[in-house]
Amino acid sequence: ENYRRSGDRGGRGRGGRGRGDRGGRADRGGGRGRGRGRTDARQRGRGSDSDTRPGAVKINLKLLENAGFEHLYGIAPVLNALKANERNFANPDDEEKAEDLNDLLDLQERLSTVDGIDDGFSRALEDEFEDRKEDKRIIKPEAKLAPYLFVQEGTMDNTKRSFRSDAKIQASSEIVTLAKERGLPVAEVDKGVLNTLCGSRPHQGFVLRCGGLDFELMRSIPSAVGEDAKSNPLVWLALDEVVDPQNLGALLRSIYFLGGGERVGVIVTAKNSSPLTPAVSAASSGALEFMTVYSTSNLPKMLNNAKDNGWRVLGA
Fold first, then answer.
1. I need a labelling partner for 235 at 20 to 30 A (CA). Which of 162, 183, 243, 263 fits?
2. Burial 81-112 (b: 16+ CB within 10 A, else e)
3. How many angstroms separate the CA atoms of 208 and 83, rounded?
4. Listed residue (208, 206, 207, 204) closest to 163, CA to CA
5. CB-count exposure of residue 287 (10 Å: 0-12, 13-18, 19+)
């Protein structure tokens, strides 16, 4: 589209001498009009090629988002998400099909005991049951409304020369093993599919389709004194309207290094804070997957109450 737009802008230049005409000058033997025509032909060819080349996969990301799926990318976030097992890896499509089949089977059994049921209706019911059971429509994995682990083609091929470190090779193998243990299907796809799923972010050959993470509501910080204090974090980090996912992810990574949720708790404002997106997980190097991030609708009130409960509040 960008290529076509640049040509269109050129065509609107004064006297037809815009950038679109410059494309024709590469053909020094031809006039301005012929050069522009060849440029347009290239543009049309590129547009049609984009629909057939391997990387151009039309995926309804909005539909996937509305179905509750996210696409984690990168070795660390994907590996940690599978280790923590806090995300939803259930397949809603399979559950719905199972419910439909169970309903049909139950109806079939109940009708078999009723006298006077038309034989044609019974056969139609049996046909419907078999059709649903054997529904094998061919849908590409990246287009399915189902959790998936997508691996770039050739990533797991140990026979090829690899510039990855031994640690990354081991982590890649562990990702595939954990995915299979979680019951996730694994699909090898080309790099273009992975780029489409994660918005051309650095995926390192892995994209995990799964459920998202949400904040956990907290009404007050637990008391700093008494028996309850022993099981609570020693420090709480209160973040006021951190909207940038990179900043939030970097803070979570540092917090996890300092002890994670056991020593340092995290509270954010319920409004005007970055949600826990795949970008946050990537910026945290996957630390988000092992942490619980709390939210509050009234941060000043929470901090004032924390003072009364034995906490010292410092602002920066």
1. 243
2. bbeeeebebebeeeeeeeeeeeebeeeeeeee
3. 13
4. 204
5. buried
